[in-house]
Amino acid sequence: MLNNKLSFFRIFMFSGILLINSCTEVGPGIELIPSTLGVGSDTTYTTAIENPATKKVLAEEFTGVSCPPCPNGHKLMASIYDQLNGNLVVISYHIKNYPQTAPVEKDGQLLSKYDFRTDDATDIGKTLFNGISAIPAASFDRTAVSGELLFSTPKWPNAAQVRASEKSPVNIHLASSYSDSTREAILKLKFAYTSEVLTNHNYTVGVIEDSIIDAQKDGLEIIKEYVHKHVLRDIITPIYGTPVPEKVKPFIPGKVYEHSIRYTLDSSWKASHSSFVVFIHNSDGGNKDVLQAEEIPVIN
Predict the structure, then answer these.
(1) Which of 71, 118, 211, 290 could form a disulfide with 141 if both were Cys (CB 3.0 to 4.6 A apart)?
(2) Taking the C-alpha atoms of 65, 71, 73 and 79 in order, what is their torsion angle to the nearest 10 degrees?
(3) What are the CA-CA distances from residue 196 to residues 50, 132, 149 (Å)?
């Protein structure tokens, strides 16, 4: 599975004006510079140093539809989002081979319409977090505290706040274009360094979907029309991420890296509820810290 991830998408840079139905852009208000490189290319250059953007914390939440305490975790994560003034990017992982993530059943009757479990979420839990022993559990920026990467709910607020106080050395700018007729999206990435980074680092790109109505266990109840948010649909890059190319080095203030991805959304996902998530993270040894995270709707 891991070796085949790159076959799921094609990478290219813009060589002119793309005729796509809609386009959005996020970031600290910097105009994305069009690339003149051809298909399969990317570019790096040095320009004026940007002001550092506010640090956005990546929250990776392991959850399940048959997990009675998990809705409390969802509420807590929403509260943390508010406390951080929206500077929180959340991915909800539903792993396989775990009873509380299986579709909801009652008296032998299947109540769930969907199965949110993915191989990507399962592989991330197994390889990046050394297995999942309890849910709900979450990691914030993949930063370990006393050797612990995953936290139970009482530790979430403080772990998120600690990471929010960090300054990011790199800004992420995203632009998304989408065609309704082909369900093809174009995601343009721009990484702009605002201070020096001495570690090697990767970037990961994923797709999440919001506002999916389906069954959820909540305490002793079953909510048949629960609103599921931040559901991971796919990790487009390998789950370990893709290295920021050597040619970008040295990672110094003013250095910029641009890259574009073409991706076709699955027909069962609602494009209007889907978003791309991008985060940059260290890849040296045991240091997995996330430097910055960003998300953008596939369409407006």
Answers:
(1) 290
(2) 140
(3) 13, 35, 25
